[in-house]
């Protein structure tokens, strides 16, 4: 659409709505945390209510314009980037938390509520919202829903999906749907709510959600262990799971720790460097924790360890894990967010290490992940003197080997970041041709003209 056509449309069909065509806004709201695509949005809308969202989508259908929902823009798969003059719908004004129900322990939240905002609200009510990750201070609830976000406590508490009791969405056809109405039990036919969770904005725009809160857990203890080898990671996990009620079991490599220390100016938590580390969070039980530590030492798996003695120290230990993504962001990392069955993690990691040694000999690779749920984050750092386009092309070539291995292990090319643009070419490594056709058919039902997030996840045609 030409600029004069867009201007005429904004004045006639979409008058009264808040929007911007300022270059800075188009760039800011037209990209996410990936940096492999140039932002090229035409306009950014800032709707105030569901009817305004519906109006934008209805007009987009009339003129065959593509609309991209935009939240906190913390994604890593280019699922919310505008590359072809698309319209952006920013949900920043849907930032209210309303209708807390102390009996049902539920709360109604707007799409633009920040994850950390909901966490604090839950705490104020004496309750707990357990979905948590490094971007919780900027990610939006609707974005979490769109990718079925997981994070650091999936091991104990599950994914975003497990806390969504109701949704209000505007479909690609411009219809407003209210799904499940906050019910715990509902066997009245298909539950479309679960289609929209994890759909990455290709079926509809999440406007509002009803979220379940839970009882505050007991005091949590935090322990950081240094490990002798990759094989020791799962051995320690099995040992810890028998003795402790785990909330988190996070893994990272020596390179990850080095990057965090360098970026934030932290001291080494131990006297020496070790090849691998795991961070455990669990219901406070000092005796059981010491048993895990001592048994791990005797077996040769654990080489050193720290049990936090205060809340401040626990928070500091978490920073060694949570600071990894921030510490490597300026390298424009190529991120692989992959998963296999928990029982197959050791074998998979060993074979993947061989692939990385062969295919990435000149690139620095940063490992970390949620080992307790089979989710690994593999980050390849761009050399300073290499062009971004060339770097991306080289990584995509290697993906054929990495994702081929994932297919062999019947794993997923995306555990929690979504598919977006970055991983769409590799979707057949996780989904059969029949599944992809059904995904396209489902999109056709909810978005018959393909106006929502066209080109992401699956092709419309």
Detailed description of the structure:
- With 461 residues, the protein is of the alpha+beta class.
- It folds into 4 domains: 3-92, Uridine Diphospho-n-acetylenolpyruvylglucosamine Reductase, domain 2, CATH 3.30.43.10; 97-215, Uridine Diphospho-n-acetylenolpyruvylglucosamine Reductase, domain 3 (2-Layer Sandwich), CATH 3.30.465.10; 220-326, Alpha-Beta Plaits (2-Layer Sandwich), CATH 3.30.70; 332-435, 2-Layer Sandwich (Alpha-Beta Plaits), CATH 3.30.70.2740.
- The chain contains 15 helices and 18 strands.
- The protein has helices at 3-12, 23-29, 50-63, 115-124, 141-147, 154-157, 193-196, 230-243, 254-264, 286-299, 311-322, 324-328, 345-359, 388-408, 433-446; strands at 19-20, 43-45, 67-70, 87-90, 97-101, 106-110, 127-128, 164-171, 176-179, 204-212, 214-215, 220-227, 246-253, 276-283, 302-307, 334-339, 365-370, 375-380.
């Amino acid at each position: 659409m030409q600029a004069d056509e867009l201007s005429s449309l904004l004045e006639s069909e979409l008058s009264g709505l808040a929007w911007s065509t300022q270059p800075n806004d188009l760039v800011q709201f037209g990209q996410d945390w990936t940096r492999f695509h140039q932002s090229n949005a035409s306009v950014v809308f800032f709707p105030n209510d569901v009817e305004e969202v519906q109006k934008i989508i209805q007009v987009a259908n009339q003129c065959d314009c593509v609309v991209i929902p935009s939240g906190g823009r913390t994604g890593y798969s280019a699922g919310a980037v505008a590359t072809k003059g698309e319209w952006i719908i920013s949900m920043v004004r849907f930032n209210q938390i309303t209708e807390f129900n102390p009996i049902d322990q539920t709360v109604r939240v707007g799409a633009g509520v920040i994850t950390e905002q909901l966490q604090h609200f839950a705490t104020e009510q004496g309750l707990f919202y357990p979905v948590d990750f490094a971007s919780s201070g900027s990610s939006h609830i609707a974005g979490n829903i769109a990718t079925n976000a997981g994070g650091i406590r999936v091991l104990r508490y599950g994914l975003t999906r497990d806390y969504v009791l109701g949704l209000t969405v505007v479909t690609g056809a411009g219809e407003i749907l209210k799904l499940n109405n906050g019910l715990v039990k509902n066997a009245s036919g298909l539950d479309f709510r679960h289609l929209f969770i994890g759909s990455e904005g290709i079926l509809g725009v999440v406007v509002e959600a009803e979220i379940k809160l839970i009882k505050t857990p007991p005091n949590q203890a935090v322990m950081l262990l240094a490990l002798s080898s990759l094989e020791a990671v799962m051995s320690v996990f099995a040992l810890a799971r028998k003795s402790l009620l785990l909330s988190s079991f996070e893994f990272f490599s020596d390179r990850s720790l080095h990057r965090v220390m360098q970026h934030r100016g932290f001291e080494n938590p131990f006297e020496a460097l070790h090849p691998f580390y795991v961070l455990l969070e669990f219901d406070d039980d000092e005796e059981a924790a010491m048993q895990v530590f001592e048994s791990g030492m005797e077996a040769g798996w654990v080489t050193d360890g720290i049990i936090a003695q205060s809340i401040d120290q626990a928070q500091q230990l978490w920073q060694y894990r949570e600071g990894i993504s921030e510490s490597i962001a300026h390298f424009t990392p190529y991120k692989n967010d992959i998963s296999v069955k928990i029982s197959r993690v050791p074998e998979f990691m060993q074979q993947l290490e061989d692939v990385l040694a062969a295919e990435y000999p000149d690139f620095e690779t940063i490992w970390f992940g949620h080992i307790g749920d089979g989710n690994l984050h593999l980050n390849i750092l761009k050399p300073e003197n290499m062009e971004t386009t060339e770097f991306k092309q080289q990584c995509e070539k290697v993906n054929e080997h990495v994702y081929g291995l994932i297919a062999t292990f019947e794993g997923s090319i995306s555990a929690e970041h979504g598919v977006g643009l970055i991983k769409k070419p590799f979707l057949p490594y996780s989904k059969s041709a029949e599944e992809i056709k059904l995904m396209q058919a489902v999109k056709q039902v909810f978005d018959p003209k393909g106006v929502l997030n066209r080109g992401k996840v699956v092709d419309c045609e």
